[in-house]
Design a protein that fits this description.
The complex is a heterodimer of chains A (about 425) and B (about 270). With about 425 residues, chain A is α+β, with helices and mostly antiparallel strands. Chain A has helices at about 30-35, 50-65, 75-95, 150-155, 165-170, 205-210, 215-220, 225-240, 275-310, 360, and strands at about 1-10, 20-25, 35-45, 110-115, 120-125, 130-135, 140, 185, 190, 195, 200-205, 250-255, 315-320, 380, 400-405, 410-415. Chain A contains ten helices and 16 strands. The chains are: A alpha+beta (about 425), B alpha+beta (about 270).
Chain lengths: ~425, ~270
Amino acid sequence: MRYVPGNAQHIGSREEQEDSFGFSSLEDSGFVRHGGFVGAVADGMGGLGHGREASQAALRAFLRGYGRKQETESIPDALERSVREANEAVVRAGRDGGAGITAGSALGSTLVAAALKDRSLYWISVGDSALYLWRNRRLTQLTCPHTFARVLRRRAAVGEISREEALQHPDREALTSYLGEPTVPEVDRNRRGFHLKQGDQIVLCTDGIFKTLSIEQMQAAMGDSPQRSSEALVERTLAAGAPHQDNLTVVAIATECEPGDGEPAGERTGEEIALQISATRGVRKRRRVLLLALSGVLLAAVALRGLRDWRSPAAATHLGVDATPLAAPHNRSQAALLRASQTAPHTDLTAAPHRGEQAAAQAAPRPSVRTAPVTAPLAAGSRSTTSDPQGASAPGRTAASATSRVPGGKTSMQQQPGVATKMPQHGQPF
Amino acid sequence: MVRFESATLSRAGGRRRNEDRCGSVVCDGAACWVLADGLGGSAGGEIAARIAVDTVLAIFQEDPRCSADVLERAMEQANGALQREQAAEPRLAQMRTTAVVLVSDGASALWAHLGDSRLYCLQDGWIVHRSRDHSVPQSLCDAGRITTEEIRFHPDRNRLLRALGNASKAEPALARDALLVGEGDVFLLCSDGFWEYVTEIEMEADLACAPAPDEWLERMEDRLLRRASGDHDNYSAIAVFAVADGSATRARDASAWCARTERGGAL
């Protein structure tokens, strides 16, 4: 499997670049085999001050943390641990100060990261930086933004406020979760690997992109390669000429199958309909038998590899924090893009949705269809909530009010409990 | 054997009245979920949907089995009840409703539908089945004239070919074989006001992130709310998760550093 990265970045109309981005290393093939390839972006919160330091601290700690992943740790667990370490780094940077930061400052940053291993995609996100999937000439946002706008939309849906109020609320852009607080309110992540297909690209970007461009404009900018896509998204955003254009950063990754990689994951599109259920039943039985047979072989292989590789140094990281884009992949040494061969079709021991589960433990014989009445009562938690208006879920914690700096040096106090503010942005609603 | 966790979402959207209706019942070790999207003036849609849901659940409770004849009888009786009401109240003569019904006994599952309310079946997080709409755009798609994606915003989207209350005999589509239900299987029943604004990839992506049915619906609803505007249609969805009998409903994160990786908001 070949991982093809791309990226582009620009300062926009701001005085400082407060976005950061980075990738994991592809040089350690042993690491790539279990850890895959990771791209991440972080957007420092200028409203809290020292946004650049915040996003750099977050990204560095995240990549360093992920680089310490061992084979026994699943990718979702490694991502979560790394985000926790990133949070601790941001908190520490603010608390301890240094390098121009006064001790006791409040720093904040978003972070969104994607890990690709063979054909599986895992992601984790805190804040409003976004991950998109590019497939069939459409961009689908995979992450859920942690913004007050989300809360407002829910309130409007249940009739607590009007839709206009929700659209015009001055704090709709404020974040309801970000790195830099002792307890992070919300983390968005998938627990089950998401299947990628040939031709897919995943795109990570900060809000400087999608607050200026509509999704249609972003789709029109996407190119055949991650590097072309990244550059075109940045160019298109700048060409839009938004006032006070925010820093903008794009990271894109594609995977390419190579001969000898084994079968790609099955074609699972949302457009497939009316699959024969009886055929599905047969496939699942066959797959289970295969799983059992393979698991024994793989367990032995993993055990052997674990013994050999456990002393591997943490994979080095690449950290990009300035406006210089990476060289396009075709200019880089191809040797740096090592192949991580697929060890087994469809089976991913590190992708178990629950910690450390081995494939063998998942196989359980299914009962055949019986006509006899069911003896055990069905404890169906039939929790029917109706359309009665119910309270929207408010952010679970209250934060101190934050000062946001707007261009021109004016300050304004934001007093919305539970949120922290970023710079107000120009862009489309919702 | 599995047990089920489900959550329901049903809102008026941009309309004054919500003419979607959802319901479910557990009876003698079997469960039934039903969703109906009513149409017709003079509040007829609301009445039609309510009659359909109430009748289906009543028939199921009389004979709570996961079987095709139960589903057929439920649809037939619902159709009859609608027609009787149409005859009794002339102002309701035009009322119709879609219906989608799912039944399961914990070992297998069956479903039936009429109209363009849908049932999705997901296994291992992927959509393995979607019911075919009884609508003009679906027919065009079946004939190869338009793509599946184009169904969503087709101008003839609201032209149904089949609905309850439409003819003397209901002709619901039934799943050909019962599905063997396993842990991790997921069902989604939804009205067109819902699926119109949420794509299949989004359903799958959101499911990958959601440990419980209410959170899945919440994530998908936010996508809908970001897109829908003006007087968009009523939207409803029932999410059903098959979980291992005896297991906890959610895997709670033990780590204290993160307050919640799941949103527990009420719908």
